[in-house]
């Protein structure tokens, strides 16, 4: 069922692109920018693909900041990840907040994504000379790329790292050795077999010293079983062909057996997906898991007049803010919609509480005061309604409140 949903989503996205081209033949669809920065650490130029959410109507003059997703093998996975984020990461009522996507391309992925010099999974004894540059790549991320993104884009302090295959190996190595660099990690069918399952051995030390506290991890495991091997046989297999899945299961079993305090983690086996097909479905599942604290559990409850919906919404975003490490408010347009709903239902107390929440959260937005003006007018407090509408007009002379103020004045 999930496969069908994602297929339909991507198909609809392509259809939408076609429609836009048909209607706006003279314009291009721009989904991001390509930045080039010079790395002193790596002594080379690096290209990154960046997608920033478009400002949404009704947000007002308040500056928005966004968590950042850092995606390895960016030229391969940028479009699928960007499409999913555009659909899922929209704020209130959706699984995750709006986020910036930074897709990192590679000049030599084997060199950059491996922690040591080692051989391939099928020929471990034959050392790949261009491997083992992972620490230098980590220094590039920490000392150059992340500061560059922080300086140029409207970023929040919360960061997510995503990698597939060797990129997933780099995700685990970052989690283990540069743990504080990111808050959440997604490893998609990672090459944990590297260097005789080095990462599994290092995980034992991480579990003992508690360095994973307050981090999140999603591990996606594809079906790479060979020669008729069954899943429950993979753990005890000894052949090179099963080394890939065996190493991941070793790490998963280790974490399952020794739960870590405040380490939010999950692994999932995808029996119908292979190493190449797993990224999109894993990205979809992981975004929802890594941000399972974000989505409002029951939006219908907010419409119950017997519930203090405004207070519950406020408390929910206080918890979200604490988890993300920066202040998050419910969207102004969403809260205004709730207030207008209760005005239409003539539930003035509920309407007041929602609309007042906007004034507190967005004191520089004309819609906040227009909403309060609507409330005061419904409550028969004409003087206060005029005052609220006037505040809206003072902030924006073209505010819709101008017409409402003129009607009240006449």
Fold and architecture overview:
The chain is of the alpha/beta class. It folds into 2 domains: 234 residues, Rossmann fold; 111 residues, Serine Threonine Protein Phosphatase 5, Tetratricopeptide repeat (Alpha Horseshoe). Helix 2 links the parallel strand 3 and strand 4. Helix 5 runs parallel beside helix 6 and helix 10 runs parallel beside helix 12. The radius of gyration is 25 Å and the shape is elongated. The N terminus is likely disordered.
Work out the oligomeric state of the chains in this entry: single chain
Distance between the termini: 59 Å
Main sheet? 8 strands, mixed
As for the CATH topology of the largest domain, it is Rossmann fold
H/E topology pattern: HEEEHEHHEHEHEHEHHHHHHH
Query: Based on DSSP secondary structure assignment, what is the total number of beta strands?
Result: 8
Strand content: 5-15%
**Helix fraction by DSSP (H/I, runs of at least 4):** 40-55%
Radius of gyration: 25 Å
Give the mean pLDDT. Answer: 90
Shape: elongated
Q: CATH homologous superfamily of the largest domain - what is it?
A: Alpha/Beta hydrolase fold, catalytic domain
Number of DSSP helices?
A: 14
Spans of at least 5 consecutive residues whose pLDDT stays below 50 are 1-24
Task: Write down the domain tally.
Answer: 2
Structural class: alpha/beta
**Second CATH tier, the architecture of the largest domain:** 3-Layer(aba) Sandwich
What is the CATH class of the largest domain?
Answer: Alpha Beta
